[in-house]
Structures are given as C-alpha cells and as structure tokens.
C-alpha cells in the first residue's frame, strides 16, 4: 500500500476541523517512539523509517497537546471503531474467530454498513466515520465508549474500547511474535458517514443488538456457550440439531426472549444449520 492511500485514510479520520494533534507510536517491546503531528500532514516520511522494525500505531482520537495519549488529553473523535482478534497468532487471549474470513462473514451477516475495514495482520479494525468530529466531553466519552462496547460484544470485538485507543496504521507491517504480516485496508467507503446520535439509534434498533450477550460472560461454563454461538465450540456433539437445541435450552434458562433467540440464530454461526436453511429460504417457509 503506497503513501497516497495511507494519507487518504488518515484524512478521512482526521479532516482537520479541530486543532487536535494526531499521535503516532512506533513500538517494539519496551522501545517506544512517540510523535504528535498536526492534521494537515502532507506526507508520511516520518513513519516509514520505522516500518518493518517496529509496530506503528496511531491514536484514533486527536490529542489536545503533546503531553500524553491518555483519555484526559483526547479532544475529538471522528470515527466509532472496534478491534476484532482472529486466530491464535499475536494474541494473549483466545479469539472468537478462527480466521479473518469467519469474522468478515459475521460482519456481513450483521450488515452494519461500516465505513472502513482494515486487516490488521492478525485481526480486523472496523470504523464508522462520523459526519463531524465528536467533541470528547465527559458525557460524549461515556456515550461513545458505551456504543463501542456494545458493538464489540456483538461483533466479537476486543474488550478494550476506550476513546484513547491506538490502532495499527494501514500500510505498515505487523511484526508481533517475530512474524511479519502486512496491515492493509480491505474495504473503504469514505462517503459512508453518520451523525453520532443517528449511529447510536441505528444500533439500538438493529435486531442483532437485541442479543443479551453480557449474560454469557459470567463464568467459564457460560463462556463455552458464547463460543458455541460463534461456532467454535460444539461440546463434542456431531448432531447439529442437537447442538442447536442445547444452545436454545441454555439461552432460555439465561432469560433470553424468543426475539433474542431468533436474532442469535439469524446473526451468529452456531452449528451452521439454521444459517444454511435461512440462506436458502429467508422467509422461513
């Protein structure tokens, strides 16, 4: 990916409406280089010398000044985002998806009309661009982080959803665990932008977001059923109908409504049997 495509990506995220700074970090273990630059950047010469020798990240929210990348120094956010881990390489915790293709298929089923999808090397970064940068008041930080937490819980995203988050810069190399993998843009529609309040409403009424997945994060036993929803746990069962029935019985005990159950099987892989039938006959007849 050349310099021009990366610059276009950054300009979509940092339109220059506010006076905030973009924070970049080049990191390899404890060796960290930080750089804060204005949003009117023309070229990225300052990034490329580190590419291939360090992991290069940027702060999605702009910073007030060069003092830190902490939340209290963030002033505007131009996109809602989530980070989805895939597979086992480069991750400390288990992922919900065996492959990036599985995660992309899940996003496609949910049909969330994202603006940008980035292959981070060992996962996906998904962005929803905002029509105008969101000022990060205390209230707006709480609203943005609540929204990102909810999206992440349904999409199988990382639990780190704070506005100060650093994400990997497309066009650079992911060198975790001694393996070099390119970080690249898979999909972009820079014209797909949302009013912040409209985006909150969009997800509130989306059927897939009626699923109370937080009920399934209480203990190790319930996490097994959460894995079953993502199609990565079958309890040693080969009969797909029996597996689906086991999932249904457990979800009913956890207080899931009929509406929740329909959403679970429509938007999550589970055993795969329901989705096969649904794709062949969306009317359910």
What does this 3D model show about the protein?
This protein is an alpha+beta fold and 285 residues long. The chain contains eight helices and twelve strands. The chain has helices at 3-13, 100-110, 138-155, 196-205, 220-229, 240-253, 258-267, 273-280; strands at 22-28, 31-37, 55-59, 61-63, 74-85, 116-119, 123-135, 166-168, 173-174, 181-182, 184-188, 193-194. Strand 6 and strand 7 form a beta hairpin. It is globular and about 60 Å long.
What attributes does this structure have?
Alpha-Beta Plaits, 2 domains, 6-stranded mixed sheet
Number of strands: 12
Largest sheet: 6 strands, mixed
Helical content class: 25-40%
Low-confidence stretches: none
Compute the average pLDDT: 87
The CATH superfamily title of the largest domain: RepB DNA-primase, N-terminal domain
Q: How are helices and strands ordered from N to C? A: HEEEEEHEEHEEEEEHHHHH
Integer tally of domains: 2
- Relative strand content: 15-25%
CATH architecture of the largest domain: 2-Layer Sandwich
Number of helices: 8
Q: What's the short story on this structure?
A:
This protein has 285 residues and is an alpha+beta fold. It has helices spanning 3-13, 100-110, 138-155, 196-205, 220-229, 240-253, 258-267, 273-280; strands at residues 22-28, 31-37, 55-59, 61-63, 74-85, 116-119, 123-135, 166-168, 173-174, 181-182, 184-188, 193-194. The strands form three sheets. Strands 4, 5, 6, 7, 11 and 12 form a six-stranded mixed sheet that branches.
């Amino acid at each position: 990916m050349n310099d021009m495509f990366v610059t276009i990506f950054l300009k979509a995220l940092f339109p220059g409406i506010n006076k905030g700074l973009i924070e970049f970090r080049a990191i390899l273990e404890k060796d960290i280089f930080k750089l804060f630059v204005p949003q009117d950047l023309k070229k990225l010469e300052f990034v490329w010398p580190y590419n291939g020798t360090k992991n290069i990240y940027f702060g999605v929210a702009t910073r007030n000044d060069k003092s830190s990348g902490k939340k209290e120094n963030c002033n505007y956010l131009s996109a809602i985002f989530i980070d989805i881990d895939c597979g086992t390489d480069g991750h400390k915790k288990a992922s919900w998806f065996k492959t990036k293709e599985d995660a992309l298929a899940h996003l496609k089923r949910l049909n969330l009309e994202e603006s940008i999808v980035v292959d981070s090397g060992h996962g996906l970064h998904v962005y929803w661009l905002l029509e105008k940068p969101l000022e990060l008041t205390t209230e707006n930080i709480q609203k943005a982080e609540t929204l990102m937490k909810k999206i992440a819980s349904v999409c199988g995203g990382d639990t780190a959803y704070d506005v100060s988050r650093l994400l990997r810069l497309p066009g650079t190399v992911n060198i975790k665990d001694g393996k070099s993998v390119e970080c690249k843009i898979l999909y972009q529609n820079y014209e797909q932008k949302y009013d912040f309040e409209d985006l909150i409403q969009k997800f509130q009424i989306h059927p897939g977001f009626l699923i109370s997945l937080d009920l399934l994060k209480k203990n190790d036993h319930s996490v097994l059923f959460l894995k079953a929803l993502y199609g990565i746990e079958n309890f040693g069962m080969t009969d797909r109908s029996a597996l689906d029935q086991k999932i249904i019985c457990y979800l009913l005990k956890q207080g899931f409504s009929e509406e929740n159950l329909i959403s679970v099987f429509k938007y999550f892989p589970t055993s795969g049997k329901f989705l096969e039938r649904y794709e062949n006959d969306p009317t359910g007849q």
